[in-house]
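Renewal narrative, Specific Aim 1. Our central claim is that a sequence can be written position by position from structural information alone. The example that follows is taken directly from our test logs and has not been curated for this report. It begins with the structure tokens describing the chain, in the order in which they were read.
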């Protein structure tokens, strides 16, 4: 038996946030890691205007920010006003890849990912 299924088109995004370390002394560094995954069948492109906004508490200073290992520039690529962080450049998240097992027909989805890392001093 066969069946035709019409796929949902477009990006399907999820985001997770991790903090390391979970306890930090004054003048210590803390890192927020955001992993954005796209399980959809198209790239999340500039046209989708995807940005990350978060409020950091405690307030951070001396930020370093990378996207997939590439340094981002304050004022051009992101803003931070002492509380709210926001990316300015729309993020591009690759589409998922789909692999079908020829024997079982099972489809494995591997999401496209982008990793945003923000490190600052408390």
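The sequence written for that structure reads:
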């Amino acid at each position: 038996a066969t069946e035709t299924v019409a796929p949902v088109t477009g990006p399907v995004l999820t985001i997770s946030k991790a903090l390391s370390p979970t306890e930090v002394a004054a003048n210590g560094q803390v890192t927020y890691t955001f992993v954005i995954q796209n399980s959809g069948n198209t790239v999340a492109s500039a046209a989708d205007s995807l940005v990350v906004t978060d409020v950091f508490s405690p307030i951070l200073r001396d930020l370093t920010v990378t996207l997939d290992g590439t340094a981002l520039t304050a004022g051009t690529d992101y803003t931070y006003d002492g509380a709210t962080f926001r990316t300015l450049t729309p993020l591009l998240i690759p589409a998922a890849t789909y692999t079908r097992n020829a024997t079982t027909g099972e489809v494995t989805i591997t999401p496209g990912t982008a990793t945003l890392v923000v490190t600052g001093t408390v």
